[in-house]
Each structure stands twice: as C-alpha cells, then as structure tokens.
## 1
Amino acid sequence: MTCAGQQETSSSEELGKEMHNFMGELYPICRSITGEGVRETLRAIQKRIPLEIHEVPSGTKVFDWTVPLEWNVSDAYIVNREGKRVVDFKAHNLHLMSYSVPVRKQMRLEALKPHLFSLPSHPDWIPYRTSYYKENWGFCLRHTDLEQLCDGEYEVVIESSFRSGSLTYGEIYLPGETSDEVLVSCHVCHPSLCNDNLSGVVVSVGLAEIMAARARRYSYRFLFIPGTIGSITWLARNEHVVSRIKHGLVLTGIGDEGKMTYKKSRQGNAEIDRAMTHVLRYSDEHHAIVDFSPYGYDERQYCSPGFDLPVGCFMRTPHGQYPEYHSSADNLDFVKADSLARSYARCLEALELLEGNQSYMNQNPKCEPQLGRRGLYRAVAGQNEKQTQELVLLWVLNLSDGQHSLLDIATRAEMPFREVRQAADSLLRCGLLVEVGKL
Amino acid sequence: MTCAGQQETSSSEELGKEMHNFMGELYPICRSITGEGVRETLRAIQKRIPLEIHEVPSGTKVFDWTVPLEWNVSDAYIVNREGKRVVDFKAHNLHLMSYSVPVRKQMRLEALKPHLFSLPSHPDWIPYRTSYYKENWGFCLRHTDLEQLCDGEYEVVIESSFRSGSLTYGEIYLPGETSDEVLVSCHVCHPSLCNDNLSGVVVSVGLAEIMAARARRYSYRFLFIPGTIGSITWLARNEHVVSRIKHGLVLTGIGDEGKMTYKKSRQGNAEIDRAMTHVLRYSDEHHAIVDFSPYGYDERQYCSPGFDLPVGCFMRTPHGQYPEYHSSADNLDFVKADSLARSYARCLEALELLEGNQSYMNQNPKCEPQLGRRGLYRAVAGQNEKQTQELVLLWVLNLSDGQHSLLDIATRAEMPFREVRQAADSLLRCGLLVEVGKL
Amino acid sequence: MTCAGQQETSSSEELGKEMHNFMGELYPICRSITGEGVRETLRAIQKRIPLEIHEVPSGTKVFDWTVPLEWNVSDAYIVNREGKRVVDFKAHNLHLMSYSVPVRKQMRLEALKPHLFSLPSHPDWIPYRTSYYKENWGFCLRHTDLEQLCDGEYEVVIESSFRSGSLTYGEIYLPGETSDEVLVSCHVCHPSLCNDNLSGVVVSVGLAEIMAARARRYSYRFLFIPGTIGSITWLARNEHVVSRIKHGLVLTGIGDEGKMTYKKSRQGNAEIDRAMTHVLRYSDEHHAIVDFSPYGYDERQYCSPGFDLPVGCFMRTPHGQYPEYHSSADNLDFVKADSLARSYARCLEALELLEGNQSYMNQNPKCEPQLGRRGLYRAVAGQNEKQTQELVLLWVLNLSDGQHSLLDIATRAEMPFREVRQAADSLLRCGLLVEVGKL
C-alpha cells in the first residue's frame, strides 16, 4: 500500500467514525414529519454546516396535499393494575405510533390490543408504525412483552399535542460557477432509526461540508426534509428553480453492510444514472443497479411526471429487504462506520464525476496530432506492451467531437472516468482540446 | 378453486366441446379455393353469426392475380381390372388432388404412377395435394394401398367441372365506437383437415359471437376466405378501408396440443404484437413468439409492403412442423376441444387488451396525489409487506403522461395488463386520470 | 466435391502460393517510412498492377505533422575487439533500429547496452524497433547473442543518411460506374516482417488485379503507404476526394493461422462493417468481430473525428497478440499460403457484396405477385419440404420497399447474401423489381 493509500484509508476510517458519532448524537431524538424533534435535529446539523431552517405553517396547501398540524409528545405509556409502566415512550420513542392522538383512559387488554403492534417473527424488536393522515393511536412493543400482558384493566396515556405550528425542513445552497444544480436530498422524519435514515443524514452533512470547501462548477442544494410531505412542500415552494436541477440523489439506508444499490431516475439514462453506474462499476463494492419504480423515497416526488427530474436513489440494502428495517434493531450497532465511509466515498466520486464530465472539441480533428512532439508518446516504438496511457489520450482525441462527454468516452473506452479526465487535462494543457461552448 | 373459477372452467370446457362439435359438422365437406364446398361451409357459419357471403366472378383481376374458374367435383375414382374402386373420392375427399381436371381413361399402372401421391413415412395416411394454378390431375392415397396396386390397366375417372362461376368468401363487420378496425381472418379452403384450418374457423366464429354481444370501442371485421387468392381478392376490393385496420390476427392451426405460437406482424412491434406477447407471457401456456417471415398464411398478403398492416398470425404448432400436417391424420381426433377453448381464451384476452389499452393524463402530475384521502392507500404505515395494489396505482400515475398506454405501463411495471387496467379505472373514478384526446 | 469446387480450391491454392512467392520476393528489402526500400517495394508491385508512385518532399506540412527527412542505410554493425561483426545489419535488416542516426565510435559494452534490444523471453528472435521522431540509434539482436558479448570495447558503425528527399507511396485508382469509392489501404513501411505487413501488401495487390479486370459499380482506390505518416500525408493531399470514400478496409496481418478479426469502423454500423460481419458469419472461418478503438493501424487516421470514414480493419490475430509480432519470427514460415488465400477470398466476397448491395422497389407491392405464372414457384403444393428458394424470393419482395438494401434483407432473413442477390436477379428479370433511384 502506498503512503497516499494509507493516508486515504486512515482518513476514510476517521471520517466513518466521525459520521457514526454524529449519528449517535442524533439517535435519541424523537423525530416525526413535524415537531420539535426535527428542529432539534436540524439545529445539530447547523452546528456543522450553515443550514437554513424553513418553517411552513400548518394548513399550507402544497399541490394535492396540506401541511399537517404539528405533532409533539411529552409522554406516553401504558400502566398496569400494579401501577407499572408496561410500555413507556420515554424508554424508546418507537413505542409510540407516530402522530398518535392524545389518549387518557382505562381499557381492558382486549380493547387495547388492536392498538398494540409487535413483530412475532422478531419478538425482541420494537416495530415502527405511523398514522400521519388518519386519526389513530397505537403503541409498538416487543412481542415478548406483549405476550406477558395479563388480562385486565390498563391505564393508557398519550400526552401528545396537535397544534397549528409548522413543518420544518433544512436547506443549504452552495452556489457554483453556473446556476445548474446538483440536488442531494435525505429524509429526517424517522425517530430512533439509524440506517433509515440517520445514515443518509450524516453522509449528506459530510458531502455538504466537503463541497462547501471546494471550487464548484455546479451549484449544490442539500435538503433535510420530512419524507413525502417534505419533498412535496419543497417542490411546491420552489417550482421556479426546479428546472435548474440537472442531477440529483436521494440518500437513504446507506449505513448497513449490504451491497450498494443505485436505483435509477425515471428518465433511466440521465447523467446521474450513468455516473453512479460508472462509479459503482469501477469500485470494489458489491452493488446492484436497479430500474426506477414509483415506490421508495422522495425520488417518487422528484420523478413524478410533472417534474421528471434526473434524481436517482442511492441505498445499500433496499428498504424492506432487511429484517431490521423499521424496527428498533435498526440501531447504532446495525450501522457501521466503514459502511458510512464507503457510501460517502462513492457519492463524492459521483459528484466529482459530474463536476469533471465536460465535452471537448479536438482542435486537430483531421488525423491524430503528433503526441510524441508534445511529450505524450513513447519514443522507442515496436514493443508489445499495452500502452494504456497513450490509448486513453487517443480515445479522448478520437471522441472529442462535441458529441461525447468524458463519461461517454470512458464508457465507450471501458476505462475509469478518472483516467479519462486526466488525459483530457493533459490534452487541454497542450491546447489540443477546447471545452464545448468555449470556442 | 373458487366458485367463479369452477364456473369459468366449466364454461370453457363446454365452449371447447361446442366448437369441436361444430368442427365435426364442417369436417366432411369438400372445400377448395372455390366451389360448392366453401358455400356450404359459409352457410353453416351463417346459422351462427350474420355472415355476409360475397361472390366474386371468375376472371376478375385482383392485383397481379385473376380469380380462377370455379371448380366442383361430383365423383372421382380409380377402378381396377376387377371393377373395384381402389381409390375413391367418395370415401375421403383428400383422395383427389384439388383442382384436378376431368379425366376418363384407361391407363397402365406405370403411366398412372406420376399422378399418385402417398406418404411412405406414414403409410396409413392420405396426403393432401393441390394444383390450383397449373392444369394437372392426381390422386392421393395411403402408401399401403399404393403398394398393393398390381401392374396392369386401370380406369381413371375424374368428374370435375371448371366453369365461369365465382370465388366465395364470408365477412362480418361489427361496428364499434370508432371506425378503427380489428381484423380477424381465417382460411376456409381446405377440405377434410381439422387443425388446418377448421380450428381457425370455429374459434373465429366463437370470437365473432362474443364480440357481437359486447360494447365495442373498435369495429371488428371477421373474414372467412380461401387462402392466398381470398385475401388478395378481399384486399383488392377493399383498398379504401384497409387503412382503418389498426390490429389484426390470422387464426390457423390452433386446435392441436402443441405450444402456442404467435408470429409477429412485419412491423414487429405493432400493438397487436405487444398485446399477444403480453397475453401469452402472463398465461400458463407454453408458447413461443416468432418474428415475421413472408412464408405462412394470409399474413403474407396483409403484410405485403404495399399494405404493411399490423396483422400477426396466431397458431399452435406451426404448419409443416407436425407430421399430421396436410394429411388425413389432421382429423377430429387430432384437434382437442380443450386446445380450441384455450386458443379462444387467449385471443379473447388479446381483444380485451386492445379494447382497454388507452392512454391517460395524470391530472395531478406534480408530486403524487394523496391517495389515502381517496381511500386508495393503507392507513397505518411502516409495515414490510409488498403493497402491490398501491404500487400499480403509483405506476399508472407516474407513467400517465400522455406518452404511455396502459400496455406500455404494464410492460414497464412488469404487471399483468388486467391489474393495470383496474388501477386506471380506480383512478378514473377519482378524477385523477383523463383519457388522452378527451381533455 | 464438384468439379467447380475442385477448380476453385485448386485456383485458391495456386493463388495462395503465388502471393506467398511474391512475399518472398519482397521479404529481404529493408523498408522504413521513407527511403529506397519503399521505392523498391513499390516498383516490384508496379510490375503487377499499374501503380502510380508519389513522392512527397521532406518538410512538407501534413496536418499536425511534417514529412520527415528521408532515411537510408548502407551498412551498420558492431565489431568486437577481435574484429568480428557481432551484430550485422547485412545479415538481417531488423538488426538496426529504424531511423537510427549515423554513428561511428568505440564504446565499452556498458555504454553500448542501453542501445541494444533483445527479447529475453524469445532468446533466438531479433526484435523490431523504431525511433522515427526522436533522434536515437540502436541495434536489435538475439538475446543469446547479447548474453555472449564480453565486457570491453566495441566499434559501433551506422552508415545511415538523413537527407531532404521524400516520402514515397503507391496508389492505384480504378474508376467505376460511379465516383463513389472503395478504399483498400495497407502499410509498406515494415522491413523484413511478413505478417506485418507483407501479408496485407500481397493480398491488396491480388485484389487490385482482380478488381481491375472486372466491371465495377464502385471506383476503387488501393493505397500502399508507410504507416501513420503515410495515411496522414495521403489524407492531407486528398482532402477534396475523401468524401467519395463510401467503404474502406485496412489490410494488415492477414497471413498467420489465427482466427480472422474484423475491427469495425468508428461509425460501428457502416455498410462495410455489416458486409464484413456478414461475410465472416457465413464463412467457415473462425473469426471475431471487435469494436473500433483508436489504437491499431491506419484506420486511426481514416477514423479520426475530422474524417470519420467508414473504414474498418481486417486482420487475423491482432497485432501484439501473437509472440512473433514485431520480431524476426514473423517470417516466411510464419505466414501460410492458405491463410493468405482465405483472407483474400473473404475480402473479395466483401467487395462483391458491396458491389451487389443495392436497394429495389417491389413493382407489385400490394399482395404477392403470382410467382407460379412466372415459373418461380412450385406447381404441386401441399408438401412439407422447406422451400428455401421460394422463401428467399418472398423475402426480397416483402422487404423491397426502398427502405432495405439486399444486405438488410439477407440479415433479416438470416440467409447468405449470395442467395438474396440471386433471388433479386430473378425478380429483376421478371420486371418485379426496379432499382431505387432508377424509377
């Protein structure tokens, strides 16, 4: 391993741990699609990146939807006849179904049961349940605990509030050379669940930090929003800038140890689709590229037919395909620092690819230019060895006809983008290429 | 099996038997490309559906062809020295080569032999031979019988007539909401052969009966015509309506037990091609989809370059690929009631698919509409189960952008058309879709 | 084997031997990118075909390049202390690195070694090295000989000259019915190396001989040029005719026993690409079709983005993939007469395909014409046998709609081009086809 390689590994290791620590900080907060938990989360992010926090009043119409009342909880529990809290929101915020209405009553177990959710197949895990848009209440608990509940009376208390408050989301915009944008979006509405989606949150924060520190061809927009209603709200309030989004990624579930999964945008062959496919192909990662489907995360909204944005979704194991999904087992142990670091690295490579994916015109298009005279070609010829470096120069020259981007060239040449980008840089320095549009 | 399932099976069974019985009625008739046999066949069909019978005079020019003289036979036989009929048209109408000229003479076996056809590889079967366009005569007989013919004199008698009569075909037109047409065509020129093509005839009759009883978006045209010269004649007389044919099927050889075969139209990706492919893919049938080739049945004419109609050919085992083909073994035993019933069912599904294959505009194209509020979405979220019904709704909404028909959506979503159609109906009821062209 | 078959085989055998003999004549000549060796080679070719020999003065600017000084050698050797020539250009012209500058000096082995090239993995072979565009000198020798050189002083003599002369190339132009051209190009700059590229030279000569003797729809241009600088020079001097080149082949390395390799043009689906693919597919040859890459022979220049000509490269084992490549083992034994003959035959088939690949309009596009009446269809119908000859007639009629060339038809019908061509000829004789553009 080279010195540079060691350095990279160690910095990647550190970064993974750092992201995992931040996740540990955010884990205990009880988030939902509205409420104090989201605000607290965004304030924690604000300590790292200059996030703008937006508040959208309850009742605001956003396309076919309405921003719901703000929901907060102070306490929630079930007490048995002996006065013992048999289910206690304060012990784990997954115990309370999200958006449960206030309750205070005595109930027999029989009447209570339809409001109790457990996972018989994983009796020690607490499931995660929500009822955002239908008035309801419920508790989630370990199946082992559910089975030990005796018949009889229980006191059920939910001290939740619904008030005309607001939906809260965070946004950071990093202007670049052009107003064309790259969008990175993650949802911040899930309570104590790590892979879904504190993993997406901490990686997004890391990407925003590094992109903020770099020169950027593109402008970047990072969104930290409640799922579904958040992206709908953002799109409704920002219709005028939507057309600037040239590439986008929804980041979710990227901290588990499963193989990386890139789900293509609705367009299917957008530059971001080709960029992520390229990055994963030339990585060491086990991975899968899957077609768009209208089920999943906020790409559902970005890729709705009225927008049809080039936004894909980067995951590891897709939602619902790992047993820990939406349960208390999706915790700080389930997500690994190394998984976070490697997910971050692939995203960053994709952003770098987009930054560097330009199209050039060969300034000497008739026959090859004499590379030898420019120090770009070997002097003694006749050997048998593969001359990869020369080959990549020739590919860039041959396809720089204004019809091919560097990613097109890398794809056709079956070479890593990085090498193609370096070759283009050498040729630019010699004046053999000029960027398309800058002639 | 559900009650409905049982009912369907039993009605399908009955239908198969019914079609097989009708075939039994038509089997003994000696058909050719002209003559009384075709007329008798069409009159039998007329008892079931209001067929219009057309007579086109001999000598009529139809493109590069001329309607031939009408051919009829009263008797044909070969008598040996002992006065015994060793070959007798009255015993089986395949014994006489179709369009044989009248003959009455004494011949030695040696001179007779070039006019005798048998199948050495299937010595008990009588072959089927024709000589429509070249003056000739011949007898077809079992190879076992041929081998027992002694040397010596035979009396050969063919009491056939060629007269300036007409070519006969049947046609039924069922008007629909639009003048756009679906064509179903089958040939009625073969004598006592069941799979080729009484199978196509009885299934076409069945389809005409059911479509006549239904509300139709498309108009339907069923043709019962002699092969080749019949379709050429129909096309020559109906050039002005040909452009109305939007989809078509030639039905032939659909009663054997072999796997279903759909041969695509010359266009190769016409809606009928995609419809039949979809229907067969989502059926339990063993099947094959094959590319167009200019050999086969009347699709040769419909798909000639001057017409290039979207007409495919639905078969089971393709012609020439089963030994019974064009021999007396293609009889009432060879064709099964169940095969007929299932061929009929697949055709009907394809017609239903065409009827229902509309394109819609999502009326809420920016972000998803709130399905929950319309009772189309589950209330308690978070579960792991596949939500197929919601998924199909989302697919229809996502792709209803005016560019995708429901079949396009079913194909991309990899779901049966029927489910996609049902989802579209739900969304139509909510006002979330409007048919393209009806905005 | 038929008589015609025998004749063809024997004539092919003779032709192979003849080409191999000619190669033997050219083998000893010391060629380079300029100089007397090229002239001598072209004069030998001129005895067979009326080649025009062009001289382009040193210093001529050709696009980004300059025609170099002319290089010639009278002698070159290394003498040891005992006065023995341990390396001698006169023994094998590969011993001297091409374009070596004049040298005359005493050197110790240590100082000499950086100028000595050998192949340790093939110790008995002399490698081939060049230094055209960087001032340098060197000797190539067997590794066994290199290892026996004792320490001590050597006299090094290179009697080479660089003078303002010219670059020499040969060209023959065979006018055809149209000014549209087929280009055949081969490089003549390699010294005593047989596969690379006397094989290309002798096959090109053979093709020029036969095409000169035939009626031609296309005009033909054969180029015998030094690699790289030769094609650049030709293109620079002939920019005005380049657009006439409709198809082209670079011929190189077609005498070894490896499988045939066709490397597609940059366009990737040019007619020549489809023609060579078709020819090889319907041949008995082991072969591979590979995509264009900008490394290789003069197709690099013809396919540079400013020209993007439809020029592919026909090889057997690609350069660098056989150990004998660029060494003294690429000699008269390595190249086989039979390999030359078969490479020639495939090229000729491709040229014949291009000549015959016309597009026609079916004059009876509505329904099939009655082929029987024209003697093109069997009289007695009903048999089971495949009627290939009729099928090919039907394919040609069906697809002769002005959108399909005969090669398109052969490809779709999956039939050899020759049969499709013959069917078209039959139909032309009946007046059923008219060539597109001649209506």
## 2
Amino acid sequence: MAHFGLDERIMLPNRRNDILTVGELLVDMISTDYDADHESFQYQKFFGGSPSNIALNARKLGVRTLVAASVGEDGFGKFLIDRLRNAGIGTDCVQAVDVSTSLVVVNKSQSTPIPIFYRGADYHLGYNAQLEEALFNSNIVHFSCWPISKVPARHTIERVVESAKKHGAIIGFDPNYHPMIWQRGEDGVAYVKSMIAKADIVKPSEDDAERLFGQDTPARQIEKFLKLGAKLVILTLGKDGAIVSNGKETISFGTRATEVVDTTGAGDAFWSGFYAAVVKGYTIRESLSLGFAVSAYKLRFTGAIVDLPELEAIKDMYGLQEEWI
Amino acid sequence: MAHFGLDERIMLPNRRNDILTVGELLVDMISTDYDADHESFQYQKFFGGSPSNIALNARKLGVRTLVAASVGEDGFGKFLIDRLRNAGIGTDCVQAVDVSTSLVVVNKSQSTPIPIFYRGADYHLGYNAQLEEALFNSNIVHFSCWPISKVPARHTIERVVESAKKHGAIIGFDPNYHPMIWQRGEDGVAYVKSMIAKADIVKPSEDDAERLFGQDTPARQIEKFLKLGAKLVILTLGKDGAIVSNGKETISFGTRATEVVDTTGAGDAFWSGFYAAVVKGYTIRESLSLGFAVSAYKLRFTGAIVDLPELEAIKDMYGLQEEWI
C-alpha cells in the first residue's frame, strides 16, 4: 500500500475505472432567495450528493469515474440518473429502490444554512454483484459520512472497505460527521473514528475535527487523525488554506482563491482535482496543489457543480508548471 | 348518535370548538411548470395536508377549528405553525418532534400528478393531554388515511376514535386509501375498511372506492361502505357530481362548478363547507349543497387554499335560499 510520500507518485495498476464514489446521490432543493430559516417561497432543484458531485467533477477533469448509489423509482431518481448518463458516467451501480429519492432542502444563506434532510432511498444502498465488480476494477474508492450514518448502507460500506483493502484500492473518506444526519440514539463519533482508522486519505474541515475531537489546535487535530490510522490527513482551514500531513512530512497550503462567489461544493471540487491528479501521475504534493486550484476555480461560480475544464487547463490557468506550492 | 336523516339538523352540544382535524400538516412543494414526471427546475412551497386545509377553510367560512398534527423542529414546521396562527387557529395540539417536517413534492400536471412523498414528522403524532382535551371539547373529529397508514400515528387515531365515540363527537373519515403512502408489506385495504366501520361520515371518490372494493357501479359501491358501518356515504363522481346515501334515502347532486381552473383541494373545500353548514344548523341536505357550492367556488381559483368568504356569502352567491338541491 502507498505510504503517501509527498514527492512520490502512486503507482496505480491498470484497471478499467479510476475513481468509484459510493454513497449519496440526491436532489438538493435550494431556495432562490437568501433567507434565515426557510421563509422562501421559491426553490430550485439541483443534482446533489457530495461523492456524486466528486465523480461528476473528476469526469470533467478527464478521468474515469463510476457512482454507486441508491435512488427511488420516481421522477427525481430518473433526473439524477439522466444527469450521470449525460456526463458519460456509467450507471450500472445505481440501484433503484421502492423508497423516495433522498432530498435535502437548503436555504440560501449569508451565514450558515440550516438544511432539512429527507433521507429516503440513499441509505438503502446494498452490496451487490455490480458494486463488487466496480470495486475490483477501480483504483480509488471514496465515501462520506452519509452512508455510514444509517443501516443498511453502513453494512454495505463495511463490505466495500473490506473489498477495497483486499484489492489494493486507495480509500478516501470524508469525515464530515454531523449528528443531524446520524441514526438517532447512537454514538456517531465513535463509529466515524473506527472508519478513519480504515481510510487512507481523510479531508476534515476544522468543524469536522471539532465535532469529532473537541476544540484543539490544527496541528494537534491532525495528530489525532494520524494516530487513529489515516495515512494522509488534509485539514482544511477555510480562507486560511489547509495543512496536510502524512505523519512524517507536514506542509501548509495558502488558499489560491482570488474571487469567492459561492463556497458550495468547494470541498468536492478539491477532492476531484486531487484524485484526478493522482490518477494522472502527479506527485502527492502536486496533486494537492492541483486540488486546491480546482477548488479556487469553482469558488468563482455559483452552484455545487460548475463547468470545469480539463485538469491541465486549470494547471496552466493557475501557473502550476513552475511553482508547486 | 345522529342517524343523518337528510332533512334533519344535527343537534350539537355546546362545546368550545366545532371541528378538530387530526393528521397531516405538511409542506406541498409544487412545480411551477406543467411536467409529466418532475423534470421541472422550479418549485414553490405551500401550506398543505388535507385535514389542515379543511381546518383552515372552515375557519374562513366562520366556524371554530383546531388542528392536531406533528411537525419537525425546523423552518418548515415553523412556517406551518405560523400559517395556522395567522388564520386564528389554536396550535396547542401541534406537536414538534425531532424528525423533518413531512413534505410532498408535486408536479403540476394536466393529467394525474405523480407525487413524491417524504413522510417525516407527520406520522409521529402522539396521543397526549392537549389532544385529549381538544377532543373532549370538539363536536366533529376528522381524519384521512394518512395518519392510519403508519404507526405510531395509527395508534393515536385509534385512541382518538375511541374517545370521540365516548364523548359523542361526529367522526368524519376520508377513505383516500393509496398503497403509495402505506407502510410497506401490510394490507392497508383491510385496515381502512375496519376504520370505515367506526366512522359516521365518509367521502370516497370513485377511485378510492375502486382501490378498496374493486370496480363496480356507484350504487353498489355505496352499499359496501354502508354495509361496513358508515352512516352517511358521499361518493364523489368528479364532473358528474356526487351520490349521497344514509342507507334509507339516496340523492344525487349535479356539480355546481361553472368554471374549473384548478381541481387541487376541491374535496377539502367540500368537507369544510359541509362541516361548517352542519355546525351552523343547516340540515344534512342543505349542508351537502353548501359543501358542493364551496367546492365549486374553490374550483375557480388556483391552489389548495383559496381566500374563501363566510359560508353565508357563498350561499347567496349560488342562490341556495330558494332551491336546495
């Protein structure tokens, strides 16, 4: 298994698919007006779900992606599947179940939005032959806290992680723990920690770290993730950039954002840029830089999904051939 | 207990409240464009839930109403409670629970819309002291198939029906059975029939009757409801009006609608007009006529909730002083 030396390239075997995201594929219903708590009359429907956004972005950046997810047998499920197809992403691993497609209602807010969650089809994701086949043929597997927050999807992720380890795939995990999506009456924090132990790469925000470990300095938070077993920890600090450590080397990244129009999906943009770069043979350090460049590019536009160019175009745009940090 | 003679008035005891509706209070998210299956981009948020619409309408028609329902501790729940308050309806029986406020996404359609149901807070309605007090002080209790379609709300309705019978309240039940809202793997039809047996007044549509009993003539469908134990059966036939029977007398009503702009909420408008008239001392026959007049009035406007005048104004508008059928 890769040890994520910052100036090394990860040698990936020759497989049919680069990145497989497993988890939420859902509709975001976002208010057209800014409001504090869902006073809005008008809402607009968007493709959503963090891992699905990552797959869509990474595909645009020029790598091969697959989405494993569960949607309802309804108009919203059809809308999401159509969007994946139009982006050239295979949908063999999208399962249709007899439960409404999951929905998140979001108030557009100048402070922190308060989403209302409608968990439906998403957490009914099962482990089946199509998912296993996709796993065997993928080099990177990615998921967030959504599918592990409820059974039966949690059991599916447990089998996904087991299979991914057996087949030498890199496991990326977004420890975006929030009690609001967690199964009631259960200690989500302990479970998320057990999952960090199994992951290769984690990208917590400072808020994520605080919800998991309490308040502490960035350096000490990173230590806690490493101690649990994560091999590469990317702690994002909002406008202050990020700190990354593999336990031996630690580097800081300033933000590359020059213009911030909308922060929605900036984290997903990072993941997709970082993964795409790893797949394309850049070093970890270069891949991190490219991830932050893609994120900065996304920040200039509204919405979680923006019209990304190929990774190399963004690399040129941010002058990344000369200077890598 | 009243036997619903068509030319009789129901003598109601002197109680603090006229109509208590128990059940769904939720947000309807309706597409702004006509579409076949949720292709729409834009949606608008409305106050919804059939019994809650009935309470709001009946209040406008000039009688006292209360709503017993369960909403989430979120912006949508707050929006619904505010709407009730603004209409002058007490909200002591609206329970707030740690589950998202129920939501129905509806595509505006020229044929039959295909709603997507997000059942959340609504079916967590519990039987508590406030609900019992409201029951003891109400003359009419109304509910639909929603709360009986899932536990724990079903158990609450069972206690409501028991208490209502003990206290001599009239029980109105909308047998709007649909497998899509029913708890999976359970025979909803059998349960709905057991509830019809306990109700005084039921208002099935022809589609409801068919889902419960299979296809048959209107006269024979009415017989089946009466045989189960309902005392007054109002079978609606869309543009062909309605047939009403108490087992001894049967009458037909032609539609009073002259202009049909939007059929949404026409049934709820009927219920509210009928109940308001019963409360105001009209005979059953007169109350039915007034119900159909209120429904015809509603059909002229868009939306489930329209700005109804007092019942007497609608009575005059439709010339109901001379001719009662």
